[in-house]
Structures are given as C-alpha cells and as structure tokens.
Automatic annotation (TrEMBL):
Range of residues in the leader sequence: 1-21
Highest taxon in the source lineage: Bacteria
InterPro entries xref list: IolE/XylAMocC-like (IPR050312), TAT_signal (IPR006311), Xyl_isomerase-like_sf (IPR036237), Xyl_isomerase-like_TIM-brl (IPR013022)
Ranges for domain Xylose isomerase-like TIM barrel: 80-313
Record region (Disordered): 31-51
Keywords, sorted A to Z: Signal
PROSITE patterns recorded: PROKAR_LIPOPROTEIN, TAT
PANTHER family: HYDROXYPYRUVATE ISOMERASE, INOSOSE DEHYDRATASE
Keyword Signal found: yes
The protein's name: Xylose isomerase-like TIM barrel domain-containing protein
Length: 318
C-alpha cells in the first residue's frame, strides 16, 4: 500500500505535471447534480442500476486503480472502464499544466461524455495549501472540477509532516473548512478521504476524531475508505452510526485473506461488505467507488474491475 502514499507524496513535490506511481505486482455530469447516466457500451448495462434499500445507483471507480495504464492510453482506458459497466469515475493526479493525463478539463469532460460516464469526484493535491494557506490552487481545482462535472473536490492524502500531532490535525481542519467555503460558493462540496494513519491516538483522541469534530458538517463531507478503516481496526458501521450522514462517499476495496496489506477483487476478500452495505442509509452515502491498489500477477486489470463491479451490483446492491 505504500506506493499510493509514495505517489501522492511525489505529487505534492511537483508544481506541474503528473506523477506516476511505481508498479506494485503487475501493471495493472453533465452537471453537478446526481444525474444517472447509463453506459450503452458493449458489455455494460442498458438500464440504470437499482439498489433496493441502499438508495445508491451508479457504480464508480477510482481511476488510480488503473494508474499503470492511464498515462499512455487515457482514451482507451476510459472506454474500457465504460465497457466494464462503470458509470462514474473518480479522478486523481490533476495538473494545472497537463490536466488529466494530458487532457485539459474540457477535453476530458468530452471524453467522459463520449463514453456515457460521469465524474462526480476528484482527488486533488492539497499538501502545499495546507502549508501556506494560499487558496489559488484550490480555486484552480474548483474551476477544473466544475468543467468536468464534479460534485465533490476531495482531499486524498496528506504527508506525515502535516499530520504529526493533534494540533496539526486542528490546522488541517481549519484549512479544510476554508477550502470548503470556496467549494460551496462554486456549487461544490469538499470531502476528506482517509487512510489508516488518521486513527493514530493523540492522548484521548485521534486525528480522525479531530477532523470530524473540527470541520463544519454543513461544509465538509467524508469519503470513507472502508479498507483503511478496517486496517486501522475500526468498524465502518460504528463510525456511520456515530456520525450519521457525513460519509457521503465510499471507497470499496477488499482485503486479501492471505496478505492483509494487499487488495483483491470485491467479494473475494475478508471484509464483510454485505454488513456494511446494509447500513448505507446511516452512512449518508451518495456515491461509491471501487478501488484496487494492486492486482494479482497475471490477471487482466479490466477483467478484475469488471468482477468487482458485478459483485457490487449483483450482490451488494441487489
């Protein structure tokens, strides 16, 4: 899992350009409203997914899952994501100079439209903003996000130097609130995505507790990375019940039964996703994104993501 952290740390060191993560095991809206668009690409559904009691509809994928392939074939990869049955994509790695893998926001939006896809959330680098408080970069993210059709601008990861004490987390919360005000003014929302380190204890509290307490519920939402919550020894359902309505997005990725540091296809691992999805209403979840940070040797990444998508749709969302 460290390569995701390394990737994001590299991203924070670059003022322009897309940083690329090293290999793990193998290479693997039309508006801001929650409008459901259904792909008609070969191999995907021809009707909107229904979700019974969960209230969910579209199934998304965090494009970091396909980071080994995107930089050299963004159009082909996006097309295959649609063919695998996904309806929503969450971006990462945006660069003011190079956009999304060489496509500026307008061109990337057109690519999504051509494939009947939405992008309701994007992960953007917030490290420098946390250090200097300069909101110029946040405004650029908002501008790009509105063009692409995001609903959420999401803080994906912060370096260890920014989160090494309770006071540091209070500073993060303050800056997140400020950025969230800018997002609100532009018709967007800001969200915070967790790893496991936010659950480190600082006296009688944790970094995550501080973020939940110190951020304005009317401005700041949370993207629950369910794998990392479980890895930290926390039960997502408990957090949903304690903070109802704040976890508007989920990252759904499974834990390999034999190697808990690794991911596997949804439904093949050790996380009890049936129990988690049964509590979707208390979470307040609006969007879900499948993510897989590594693939088993020899597996076709597109077959893997289709397997995960089909399990989510046919088992968890049935």
């Amino acid at each position: 899992m460290n390569n995701r952290r390394s990737f994001l740390q590299k991203l924070g060191l670059l003022s322009a350009g897309v940083a690329f993560a090293p290999t793990l095991l193998t290479s693997c809206d039309s508006s801001n409203q929650n409008t459901t668009t259904t792909s008609t690409a070969e191999g995907s559904d021809t009707s909107t997914a229904t979700t019974g009691d969960t209230g969910l509809s579209d199934i998304g994928i965090q494009l970091y899952t396909l980071r080994e392939l995107l930089p050299t074939d963004v159009k082909g990869v996006i097309g295959k994501v649609a063919q695998a049955g996904y309806q929503d994509v969450e971006t990462y790695g945006y660069s003011v100079d190079k956009g999304y893998w060489g496509l500026q926001p307008t061109a990337f939006k057109q690519l999504l439209t051509d494939n009947n896809l939405l992008s309701t959330s994007g992960h953007y680098e917030f490290g420098q903003y946390m250090k200097d408080g300069n909101t110029d970069i946040v405004k650029r993210y908002i501008e790009a996000g509105n063009i692409v059709g995001h609903k959420y601008i999401t803080v994906p990861y912060l370096g260890e130097d920014l989160r090494n004490s309770a006071d540091a987390y209070k500073n993060i919360a303050e800056k997140v609130n400020k950025a969230a005000e800018l997002c609100k003014d532009a018709g967007l929302k800001l969200a915070y995505h967790n790893h496991d380190f936010e659950f480190k204890q600082y006296g009688d509290t944790t970094g995550y507790d501080i973020l939940l307490k110190e951020t304005d519920p009317g401005l700041v939402s949370f993207e629950a990375d369910l794998f990392w919550m479980e890895k930290a020894g926390r039960k997502p359902v408990d957090l949903f019940n304690q903070h109802k309505g704040r976890f508007v997005m989920w990252h759904v990725k499974d834990m390999d039964k034999n190697s808990p540091d690794l991911n596997t296809e949804i439904g093949s691992g050790s996380i009890d996703y049936k129990a988690i999805f049964a509590q979707a209403n208390s979470s307040g979840v609006d969007r879900i994104f499948v993510e897989q940070e590594n693939f088993a040797a020899g597996i076709d990444p597109f077959q893997s993501i289709k397997q995960s998508r089909d399990y989510v749709k046919n088992t968890l969302m049935a």
